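Progress note, sequence design subtask.
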């Protein structure tokens, strides 16, 4: 199936498992920046105008709220998962690019590109707790619930800052293939997948923080990844090849290549229906796998 979006240049997606909704954020200069999709019928519920450039989104299960990153505005908009209304707006650092949610401590993390920092937000009150200095141009975040660690991809310093989710301090910084741009975490094997512009997905061990493998890609990576827990597969969107690379979560081997729309730019997995949603930036639609 393919679903039209409210505007062009899709950026990111997330899934609300309580209400079975999929959210797609895009460039609001060309229309309505957030499209909300019914996960059961695969139809559009509504469109929202939130900022001009939604670079990332994350869902808070405890509060049933979706956090939307407004890159140009330097803020995070919070959407009620039930009503679809905006309930809060949080000012963060300069040019925020990435979000992650820590369910153990109910915190939301915002990676701020031009501030070289990560803003920590209280998930209940939506108030800023602290700001953590990291590497140069934090571009992506993910959370490891097993070890309560947050991983921050620093694009220009070619490394990953690993943050303690309890204390909000940097534990260590590890070098990766050049241009890290995105993550996903595999909870079955406790691996973090880091998509790097240098034509590779680096795989980090969740316990030791060491790189244990590097999977070559057909083209440079924009770090668009998601993990399918049911089948233990990792999907990587190849934006210039118009397809997805599928990686076996156990063996780290590439097992398939799936065609997508033009310019696949965002992925999310819906555990309720075991579907992967792929937002295509150029063809302005969503491919459902």
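Output:
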């Amino acid at each position: 199936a393919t679903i039209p979006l409210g505007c062009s240049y899709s950026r990111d997606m997330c899934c609300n498992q309580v209400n079975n909704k999929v959210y797609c954020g895009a460039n609001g200069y060309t229309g309505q920046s957030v499209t909300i999709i019914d996960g059961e019928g695969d139809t559009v519920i509504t469109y929202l105008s939130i900022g001009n450039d939604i670079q990332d989104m994350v869902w808070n299960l405890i509060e049933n709220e979706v956090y939307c990153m407004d890159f140009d505005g330097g803020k995070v908009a919070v959407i009620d998962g039930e009503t679809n209304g905006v309930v809060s707006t949080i000012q963060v650092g300069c040019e925020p690019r990435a979000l992650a949610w820590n369910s153990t401590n109910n915190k939301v993390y915002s990676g701020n590109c031009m501030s070289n920092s990560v803003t920590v937000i209280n998930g209940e009150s939506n108030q800023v707790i602290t700001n953590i200095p990291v590497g140069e141009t934090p571009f992506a975040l993910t959370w490891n619930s097993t070890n309560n660690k947050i991983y921050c991809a620093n694009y220009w310093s070619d490394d990953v800052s690993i943050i303690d989710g309890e204390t909000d301090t940097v534990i260590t910084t590890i070098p990766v293939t050049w241009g890290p741009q995105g993550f996903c975490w595999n909870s079955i094997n406790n691996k973090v997948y880091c998509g790097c512009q240098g034509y590779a997905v680096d795989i980090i061990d969740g316990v030791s923080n060491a790189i244990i493998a590097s999977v070559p890609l057909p083209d440079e990576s924009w770090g668009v990844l998601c993990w399918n827990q049911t089948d233990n597969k990792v999907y990587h969107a190849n934006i210039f090849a118009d397809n997805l690379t599928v990686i076996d979560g156990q063996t780290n081997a590439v097992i398939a290549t799936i065609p997508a729309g033009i310019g696949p730019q965002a992925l999310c997995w819906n555990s309720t229906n075991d579907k992967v949603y792929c937002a295509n930036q150029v063809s302005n639609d969503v491919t459902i796998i």
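The first strand starts at residue 2 and ends at 4. Work on this subtask will continue into the next period as scheduled.
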